[in-house]
Design brief:
This protein is α+β, with helices and mostly antiparallel strands and about 425 residues long. It has 16 helices and 16 strands. The N and C termini lie far apart (about 55 Å).
């Protein structure tokens, strides 16, 4: 039997769904603009060679791959960061740094379906390239927090947990855990919450850690305050000083109430090198809303010049779940400035001219495609969410004037085509 559902894990966006998505994208774009980010885009298809140069991560097993007609190995992008890195490397000698770039792109991963996780999603990326200052982290986190606040969420509904790969590496070194185990440990520890601690311990054991070292790792992850971290790593830790600076910057930038220190935030992608962060709903029901961090070695690992980078990815699926849980989903009612209908073919010409005047004034118009009775027209105008309705029949054609009816039951007004156009063009 033929199915009319999209492939598993993929989504259709009917007009009402598209309006909600568009409201989210508008919040992302306006926030990026206010924070000085420039928008870019890249192909949804990338070469497997580029993605494999970041091999060794769980994501490598989740890529949708295919071979094209010229036997090139390609893939649907699982994230935007490799494309960003490729684009920057291609023009690294000509670009002016630091860069502040933003993108909204569709990404694909073949993975197990859970709440808040699809096999495709749209992701908002913010990246700052070429800046060593912790102010780069503050800017991307502050922008993501501002977007969530623009959508109506508060510190009571989400928090950003901040950790540091660099601090964790220093703690591992002080505990005598070999540096060669660090990356595999990060990948295993990032699975906490998705698998049990016993399973995480088994992964660490498979990596070669002794029982005492595994116990010490879990003790380190129990650190919950900056003072505890300072006692463990030493007050002179440069990595810890960076986290303290981030928290001090959050005050004047207005997002300090949203920040929480959490050394257990590690991030699963191998290219992170310093501060890392993830946002979660305070109810603890959902996956991370957004996440990111500093990745100073990615460009050089992919063949470019080494350059400091900070970025985040912010998916559309989880935030929509959170907005639904909080009763704050974007309004999806259709809205159009004018609906215009006509009674018969002789009335159509004036209706068309009125529609042209509306659109020339930069306002939206839902023009009837065929003659219809008044009752049917006004019912359709109501369904379309029209703010005003104009219905033209033989009387209007004869008089050369027509009535503009506000759909909120305010008093209608009458105008000729010329006076109507003048009013539309005048001050609001």
């Amino acid at each position: 039997m033929t199915t009319f559902a999209p492939p598993r894990g993929m989504r259709d966006f009917y007009p009402e769904d598209f309006r909600a998505r568009d409201a989210l994208f508008s919040a992302w774009r306006e926030t990026a603009r206010l924070h000085g980010f420039e928008e870019y885009d890249a192909p949804v298809v990338e070469t497997m060679e580029l993605l494999e140069r970041k091999a060794g991560e769980e994501i490598s097993d989740q890529i949708y791959t295919f071979v094209d007609k010229s036997d090139r190995r390609l893939a649907l992008r699982p994230e935007l960061t490799p494309s960003l890195a490729r684009m920057i490397i291609a023009r690294q000698g000509a670009l002016s740094f630091p860069l502040k770039w933003s993108a909204i792109g569709q990404c694909f991963r073949y993975e197990r379906m859970t709440r808040g996780r699809k096999r495709e999603h749209y992701q908002w990326n913010l990246d700052i390239v070429g800046e060593e200052s912790v102010l780069a982290e503050a800017e991307v986190i502050g922008a993501a927090v501002a977007a969530l606040r623009r959508l109506g969420l508060s510190a009571n509904e989400f928090q950003v947990r901040v950790g540091s790969r660099a601090v964790l590496a220093e703690l591992f070194a002080r505990s005598g855990i070999g540096q060669e185990h660090f990356m595999a440990c990060c990948l295993a520890l990032d699975k906490r919450g998705k698998i049990s601690d016993d399973e995480v311990a088994r992964l660490l054991e498979e990596e070669g850690l002794a029982t005492r070292d595994i116990e010490r790792v879990f003790e380190l992850l129990a650190i919950t305050t900056l003072d505890q971290a300072a006692a463990a790593v030493g007050a002179d830790s440069a990595a810890l000083a960076q986290i303290r600076e981030l928290f001090s910057l959050a005050g004047p930038l207005g997002f300090a109430p949203f920040l929480t220190f959490d050394l257990a935030v590690i991030r699963g992608l191998g290219y992170y090198t310093g501060i890392v962060f993830e946002a979660f709903d305070t109810a603890g029901k959902l996956r991370a809303i957004f996440g990111g961090g500093r990745y100073d070695s990615l460009l050089s690992n992919l063949g470019g010049q080494k350059m400091p980078c900070v970025g985040l990815g912010f998916g559309d699926v989880v935030v929509m779940e959170l907005l639904a849980d909080c009763g704050k989903l974007p309004a999806t009612a259709r809205r159009v400035d004018f609906a215009i209908g006509f009674m018969d073919d002789p009335s159509r010409d004036l209706a068309l001219r009125a529609a042209l005047a509306v659109r020339a004034a930069g306002k939206s118009c839902d023009l009837a495609l065929a003659a219809e009775k008044p009752k049917k027209f006004f019912a359709r105008a109501d369904r379309a969410g029209a703010l005003h309705a104009i219905y033209i029949g033989p009387d209007e054609v004869q008089s050369g004037t027509f009535s503009i009816k506000p759909m909120d039951d305010r008093r209608p007004w009458t105008a000729s085509l010329d006076s109507f156009a003048e009013r539309l063009a005048g001050p609001a």
